[in-house]
Amino acid sequence: MWRDSGKSKDEFFMQKALALAIKAQGKTSPNPLVGAVVEKGGRVIAQGFHKKAGMPHAEAEALKEAGRKARGACLYVNLEPCCHFGRTPPCVDKIISSGIKRVVMSVLDPNPLVYGRSVKILRKHNIEVRTGVLAGQAKKLNEVFFKNMRRHLPFTAVKFAQSLDGRLTDNRGNSKWITSLTARRSAKHLRQIYDAVLVGINTVLKDNPHLDAPGKVMSKIILDPHFRIERNLNIFRKYRKIIVFAGEKYKNVRKEKKLAGAEVIYLKAKNGIFSIKQILSRLYSRQITSVFVEGGAETLGRFFDAECVDKVYIFAASKIIGGKNALCSVAGRGVSDVNKAFDLNIEKVESLGRDFLITAYPKK
Amino acid sequence: MWRDSGKSKDEFFMQKALALAIKAQGKTSPNPLVGAVVEKGGRVIAQGFHKKAGMPHAEAEALKEAGRKARGACLYVNLEPCCHFGRTPPCVDKIISSGIKRVVMSVLDPNPLVYGRSVKILRKHNIEVRTGVLAGQAKKLNEVFFKNMRRHLPFTAVKFAQSLDGRLTDNRGNSKWITSLTARRSAKHLRQIYDAVLVGINTVLKDNPHLDAPGKVMSKIILDPHFRIERNLNIFRKYRKIIVFAGEKYKNVRKEKKLAGAEVIYLKAKNGIFSIKQILSRLYSRQITSVFVEGGAETLGRFFDAECVDKVYIFAASKIIGGKNALCSVAGRGVSDVNKAFDLNIEKVESLGRDFLITAYPKK
């Protein structure tokens, strides 16, 4: 019961809506994560969450469950309800006809088609509206969607695993395995939050990874300026969608026939380096809303160089590698001045058995 | 009052003894840190701690304060009291004559001249003795002393400051300043826990550091295989004790006259690399019980290579440097196989403003 929770009533029920929303993490793309709770007399009488694009919205699901009991009740939803026809009819209409008397939301929809409009419509129909409840949490929950709507680009998370002294490999260049099985499992779990995994061709050729995620068909993106990819690699074993970015000058090398349905996008490469911004923009136009960049060092470095990093996951193993030939985790051009380094805000440091995971965001 | 503390009586008062002991951290060398509490009727009636070598022992101080009230009381002390004449008379004699009826100690003295002997003497005099209370904390508190007594070598702590991707410098080789002022102050504070600070000559010539600590005259140790040190460096500004390890073949270059009293120890260097074990052994014979190794990368690497590391402090700045020319924090020979990496147990991760500090111990 919220009365014993020490929280305000609105925060208590919004927390429930947020907890529902996150259940579908990694499954709603290109839609946001939304949870809804119908409350009456201090009790949840119905609830719902958006499970997948094309499936009912959270509000619709909760109101359907509530039925006539919704009359006079309060609706909690972590994102402003829609007022436009998408794949499903607008939620505001359903809220109005349900008899709901108060709507509490965390954040307005960053989608310019909606932003604040639903609030106005609801108020016009004499429904009390409160916004901004647990807004920080709600924005973080939908950080992918916010980035998409505001910048029309995919959200970019980068991940790397390193020793405590920042090494990706030992002094013979071997990277299997710096971190423990526990850490590697956790990394795979993170992968499935995102639409696509992205790696450079060197990583593909050297480590021959599968780049799969348990229970999800990942889009796999390969940056391959010199078009060296081959059909017999593990990434092709299980797949639905592979996109290879190849250097423009390989346009006439029609390798993609052999790549069994993988899409090849030819792009200008300067000294073998693509424009990361161009790549992200091409991916967004293909409805890829989020990218999980897994390496190697060179590819990671290029994302930092281009300042195209929205979130950073660092898996750190509790060991020292040392030496002169062990690769560092992030290469690229790098910064020539400490004061121009890519600054981060540490969000949290979690222990993962003998290793730990640092989650960080770029400093604004 | 211990009755409200939720702890057992013995743990409660031992905690007080430990809290007293740590007050003299960095000041008692070559002696251990010891605190003592005299308890009667559930109250502290007297207390003391060892402040400096040559000054009274903790037990002596507490018993002196207690005077006649010590009769029938209980003495808490984090280390087994001494039973031999050192610079001060043996504490067991004082305990026996004081009328103390029970002695609680955390750990037996690792010094073979004492180990368990005082316990026997006390029991022979019908004093009840309990050992092992908060033994883990007590051993950690005196980790330097335990290392000294058991291995006849200084305790070696290494410290480095790096970016999140393990870089010591930017891509132009500049290391000022990766971490924030808060972190650098914290590092200076750590320095004064130890008897000596040790750096390689490259760091001295490149960064020209002072290597001082607030409120303490540090011994400064320089590893200088090619004897390149000069008198006009900042390390010579304030000093009491500087030891320079120079390559054996420079024995006839009598530079030390110009080094104004600094001691020069000539040692064999193989390809410009000293034996770290020899260096530590030489330092121990000069009553240096603990060394704080501050770099640079090459020197740090050599300590890891030689497995002469007892504790690791990593200051990590929340930034990414990237690139190919930025130095890594630990060099040396390094490990050629991930499975042979220098494994650590993370003790704690502390936030220091925007940076953080990882404290770790070698995995046993």
Query: Helix fraction of chain A?
Result: 25-40%
Total helical segments of chain A: 10
Distance between the termini of chain A: 38 Å
Give the averaged pLDDT of chain A, no decimals: 93
Helix and strand content put the structural class of chain A at alpha/beta
| Percent of residues in beta strands of chain A | 25-35%
Assembly context of the chains: homodimer
Radius of gyration of chain A using CA atoms only:
23 Å
Largest sheet of chain A: 9 strands, mixed
Shape of chain A: globular
Structure in a nutshell:
The structure is a homodimer of 364-residue chains. The first copy, chain A, is built from ten helices and 17 strands.
Describe the structure.
The structure is a homodimer of 364-residue chains. In chain A, β3 (74-79), α3 and β4 (102-107) form a beta-alpha-beta unit. Chain A contains ten helices and 17 strands. Chain A has helices at 9-21, 58-66, 91-98, 117-124, 135-141, 143-151, 181-191, 201-207, 276-285, 297-305, and strands spanning 35-40, 43-49, 74-79, 102-107, 128-130, 155-163, 196-200, 219-224, 241-247, 263-267, 269-270, 273-274, 290-295, 311-317, 319-320, 342-352, 355-362. The radius of gyration of chain A is 23 Å and the shape is globular. The longest helix of chain A has 13 residues, at 9-21. The two termini of chain A are 38 Å apart. Chain A has a nine-stranded mixed sheet with strand order 10-9-8-7-13-6-14-17-16, sandwiched between helices. A five-stranded mixed sheet of chain A has the order 2-1-3-4-5, sandwiched between helices. With 364 residues, chain A is an alpha/beta fold. Chains A and B meet through β6, α10, β14, β15 and β16 of A and β6, α10, β14, β15 and β16 of B.
